[in-house]
Design goal:
It is a single chain. 64% of the residues lie in helices and 5% in strands. The protein has one domain. The protein has 299 residues and is mainly α. A three-stranded mixed sheet has the order 1-3-2. The structure holds zinc ion. Zinc ion (ZN) binds next to α7 and α11.
Amino acid sequence: MKRSSHFLLAGALCATTLAAQAQDAGKALGGLLRQIAPGALTAPAQRAPATNDLIEMLSQSVDSIDEPKEIEIGRQLASVLLGSKPLARDAGLQRYVNRLGRWISLQSARPHLPWTFGVLDDPGFNAFAAPGGYIFVTQGLVERVDEAELAGILAHEITHVTEKHHLRALSAKARSGVLTQLLASQVRTSNAITGAISQQMLALGRDLYSSGLDQSDEFESDRQGVALAARAGFDPYGLPAVLQQLRTAAPDNPLFTLTLSTHPPAQQRLEQLEVAMGARLDAHSGKPSVPIARRLQQR
Ligand SMILES: [Zn+2]
């Protein structure tokens, strides 16, 4: 384990590396916007044949899906997410979250993926990942956390990608025969994103993001996310602090409903993390809280 060198790297190079990555991150988001901006979403279905292949592959096995196809599936799911919520119109905030997310993803098991981070224009408290490295957080979440907490959330979502949690869940759904029912029950051609992706992928994506992942995947992302955030130089207690916030959120508060309904109870997640972390990461905790607003002013 090269944790100590990661920490050195984080300490010594963090600021300059982040600055150097800013341009790349901006380009990546620009690319994302071009690919899945509203105009692109209503474009003719150039990818339809490939999409049918993707569904076919998902129905067989995750092992048959190579990385370029995994990324393509993620791009399509990202457009499902962006079809329901647009990106926030704050370029400075988008750049900041991209820089932060890309820095953390560089410490992950799959640093070479085309990691792309976006803030959705939504007052709710939520975060989403899609295969291949697409990650979104809601503006309502960003407004309620500090930098270490956001780093913990991004590290949790990055782990969903590196461990292929969504890809496996999609594959299980595609194999279960639920797709036929979904297609029958969902309103067809009702959304601007139809045409850019297939009805099958849209149905699978909507079902996945409304039902959530297996609890074991969430616990794994919590455990690995804490370690990943620490490796990137952030306080490992950022994610537990977010879970404390979720634990005290009123279950009927509509801003928290989706997060609470698609994840195991926050109390359980905290207990699992306590077992996994023990006191092992305590040496890396206790860093002063950095408000995100201050980071944005520094720019
Ligand atoms: Zn999760």
